[in-house]
């Protein structure tokens, strides 16, 4: 179990610390030791009950919830107390000398007596909660009355006024009624809760169900009762057999055998609605015979992995349920309110648009809010109050009519494992519509203690948790890389409402987002500041002893002194760009800090006591772009530092950098800003855990040539050593450095996956060593001369999936990408597609694709520079028609110093070729850049000064920009 969770508070990590206090390392007074043992035993028992309660969270009554909340709160208080004591006491030497031992005991006497008093008070609270547990018989877990499944209505009621269902119904029905496929076929509809999966499935059922001899529709509960589910199916396909089943008390295996027997010779159609687990589907599937009567099963699920399992055989198909577009969202919304899809008063148009934007195409949300507004007066102020409440946690609480939607969304939440519930709840700290950095989110999960090391490397555990939430459609991806990795995500406003509400109930996090707040919790554990106000500063100040996480999204009016923030784990001050040195001078007091981000142009110095942060894992200073910012030498004392991210202007004065043995991410280190670049280059080789390295050499170009050569050789040697260890990501801004590192044809970088050369730098030719990079999947490279040999070297990189190739020099050789390489390439950016910047020849494509080349290519990005006329059949010359899997083609026209007529001719030419392109599904997008620098006609171009037409420096800046 993780150290901290929404279900058990800090109980797990606390019990581990209590056990540590009982070791010989800590010298406790006899009475304290006895009480620590008592706390360890009692809290271990309480944790067992908390785990049990967490498994049936939705069924707990008020008494059980209250007890659980008090015990969680107690666990945080005890851990905070233990942490402060361990900080003050420290750990002594294994065999201290007599005088040292005596002095140390005198020094810590007050601390040891202080904890005795605190432990006595905490013990009294533990005893009180233990007695309440016995008095209310909580181990018997009183349950709330079970409510009707909110999905039942959709299963048994014909829905009227459906919008945008014709297309999906036609698609799904077409998948199910293909007469050529005689064997059993499964179609799975997948999507988040509230998208209308059940409605779609039942409409298809009503449309084609009569064509089957046997049919049935059932809904799967989160805790499956397979026997009851199959008896329900049996009742629908043969009532007589079902009566016999009931009277004779058939058990599961008898029901399975009889169901199979009845369906074996029949053409049947079964709907299995809302399958939650892969193992559930495996059990359900056993009851249905594989016959050749064109039988069909239609399953719905919120979980992508389950849908993939349902469609595991060759004939089965998956249907991804999509949100409604803007037009259909409006139709559905206005039909429900005004019984017409185009009758909306002008004064309500703007607020309607805002409400629909927050509904995000979710039919359940649109119908729910429309039904709510239909029962009210059509008053703009009333509608605006509802609109303002969505995404703040208030909308699901304000009206009983919204409970149905709340219950539907809650089903997905209740089905999450405990640690995923905690990870999802944490997303409530981010504002509505906020683009959340996936990396930042994972680092904060780790810092908060939500993930357990016993599950594996914490970064990999965080990645798995994130993927699982995406798989369950609880998180929406905003920006996905070519290789499937995620850059940004967001939370649907309805889900955000839900998790803010759940967080409030459990006092998991306090979100200051502009809601009317009559009072704050007495103890705020996690605080997200999304709006400003004097009361917000008060909230921080009054709860600083208990605060574990503080994240700012809006500037706070006053930064409280950090000296008493003993419990702080996460401090994110990215919105406080007014901070000065004095505001962070006591940062060393927050001894348990794991994640620290500061963003301010006014901070020029971090205090030396930052070295006291012995638990710090992430130090993110990329937003501190002051040219005077200097890191203290004590940074090398951060023994657990995993990620150090600075700006290229940050000065690095320390010389023992190699002591940071846990460092895995080192970004934007400017070698010129170190006190001794030579020594720093040598120190790098000792960072054997380094996985990501981004270094820049600005200013090192000014070195005397011989010294620079020594420096490049030394740095190259260190990077080569890192490449043999764990290095996965390398970003360099210096071409000479790049060529030096990869000049050896036998260079070995077994783990390297991402290799980038800064677009402002370049190399003369593709180095020989590139072909030895067997695992590189992403390559960004700028080359002066690119010839057939360079192309073959790139094609010799077997794992390459993403290639950004920029050519700076002239190229008069026509190159062909054949079938002997780029087997896995999915994304290809090519810049520029002319014979040269200033060639007087008509630009033809110098790079072409042969039939069968790049079979996996999905995205192709081209940049054209029409200095002269572009061939009318440019795309055909390029060989785009051979790229059968191409899904997206983007052509960007650089208009700098070009004539408008030539640019329009290029666009017209490409437009005609698009219409004739054989792959009608390829999305082709043509755009311009640097339009302000175009000439309006040939006359203006001819009259322009020659040095203006051929301004290479400005042109280059435009190209790389």
Q: What distinguishing features does this structure have?
A:
single chain, Rossmann fold, alpha/beta, 961 residues
Oligomeric status:
single chain
Describe the global form.
globular
Q: Percent of residues in beta strands?
A: 5-15%
- Give the name of the CATH architecture of the largest domain: 3-Layer(aba) Sandwich
Report on the structure:
This protein is α/β, with parallel strands linked by helices. It contains 32 helices and 27 strands. The protein folds into six domains: 11-140, no CATH class; 152-320, 3-Layer(aba) Sandwich (Rossmann fold); 326-389; 406-508, Orthogonal Bundle (Arc Repressor Mutant, subunit A), CATH 1.10.10.10; 509-650, Leucine-rich repeat, LRR (right-handed beta-alpha superhelix); 810-961, no CATH class. The strands form four sheets. It has a 17-stranded parallel sheet. Strands 2-3-4-1-5 form a five-stranded parallel sheet, sandwiched between helices. Strand 18, helix 26 (735-741) and strand 19 form a beta-alpha-beta unit. Helix 1 (11-21) runs antiparallel to helix 2 (30-54) and helix 14 (346-359) packs parallel to helix 16.
